[in-house]
Amino acid sequence: MANETKNIGEIFHQRVFRIPDYQRGYSWTDQHRNAFWEDLLLLLKIGGGVHHYTGLIAIESLSLERARSVLSEGDLWLLSGNTTLCMVVDGQQRLTTLILFIHELLARHAELVPDEHAGLNATTRRVDVERTFIRKESLAVPGHFGYMFGYANNDSMDGFFRSAILGDTTLIVGGVPTSAYARQLNVAKAFFRTKFQSFDRPDELAKWFDLLQSRLLFNVFEVKDEFDVCLTFEAMNNRGKVLTDLEKLKSRVLYLSGLSANKSIDLAIRTQQMAHYRRAINDAWTKTYEVLGWTEGGVLDDDKFLQMAWVLRYGKPGESRNSHLFSELFTAQRALDGDVWPDISTFSKDLATLAAPWAVIERPREATSLRQRGWLAADVPEDIVSRLERLNQLDVSNFAPLLTAGLVHFQTKEISAERFMSLIAGVERYAMLVFGLAERQANTDRNVFMRMASELYQAPSNILNTLEYLETQSNFRYEPELFETRIRSRQIPGGSQRGFYDWDCLKYALYEYEVDLRESRFSRDTPKLSFRMLQQQTELIQSIEHIFPQTPKMASGPASRRSTGPILCW
Question: What pTM was estimated for this model as a whole?
Fold first, then answer.
């Protein structure tokens, strides 16, 4: 493994870069970009020959034979002469940011000086900078451009990156970005675009380019063939929480897929088998990341999702997820023995299948959008969405796998809408009685529900056992006397006690009681306030002022019992 310190120009000299399929997408936020910009500003103020260490870049140089599996036939001309295709093992966030920086700087320079052959500085033409870092035109096929940096050609992001980010008008990529990674690329492009719009003189832009090219230094590690690249990537990114466990798992199974190919068959057939394996993995992970990264409420938690999927597939209560996945299941020894591919294939399909249903459980209101994008097999009725939305106000983290399994089978019509609603109601009753009223520990029955979730996922008929267990355990673990004692203790004035306000389920209970009064006992009209509005108005609805009118009017008859506001009686 070679280790050298280089500037960005030296790094790109006679190299073409691609981000491999085991990497996550672009995830830098404005916090990272602002820090990068401030570093450059400081360097500009200091002046002189001061350099800034920017970080590590690890690359793998590919042979021409291996490059053919990464580049399209139309882009192989980029490797003419001594140019080498390099896969970015580590450092893609920094490199992507630098490419966006350079692209937007060149775009602003072109607005100020339209001639593409104009000098960016005293020694460098703008067109030469574009050819080094962004793209160059094929001499054999005029109008065809090859890109110096991008994603491996089997990655769905590559077309988006070329068209929407780098402005290739010859590519037609429909629709809006469907992942958080794509959205971050758009945000980063706009960030640098805005920065450079404030520059009105070409010489100002030249200073920033000189700064970028000559004073930012990187440690460049070149991973040789004798090192395993995917495991190197995993090891390099195992400092702190740089990568999620889901991302590490993708790297691991891609590596194992290569080891899993049959060694006894013809090399050409074996190569096809390896390509089939990688394609299946990439297809499953692509769909998974699209769903997790698309939702309007922000990126869903990768590792929460992985935990849920692991529970459903393997149902190992009390065991460590990562120990099972990385040390027992997906290991090099199992791959060499020929035992691991069925597990890789099955679990990859699980991830793709479960992503959208789990997203609905986490964010019910986005069910319609998920369905419109084709990620859900069937519509989720409004009454189910509303009930899930209300359920999320309680502590239901233990039940996410169970509810996801139920929704999967509801989507395939193996569980009816009525039966799925019964499951939601059973979970809601258990959560309210056991966690809300009895205030039992959050891990109560957790292992049992993990096992039952896995059993339900494997066989939808197990829902009957699940419903029975929820019913019996709700009654068994609820102790009304204990709840009364705890509520009364909260009424003691002084100290940190805030009475009823300290009860986590207060808003939920008041709302449900109001709905019960208005719809069940006294009238059938629609509640004045929807639960969704109650969720959204947290800044406006800070407290419950009173439970009776401030100036009550005494009356006789049924009318005197009408609700005048949310009233909680125990």
Answer: 0.66
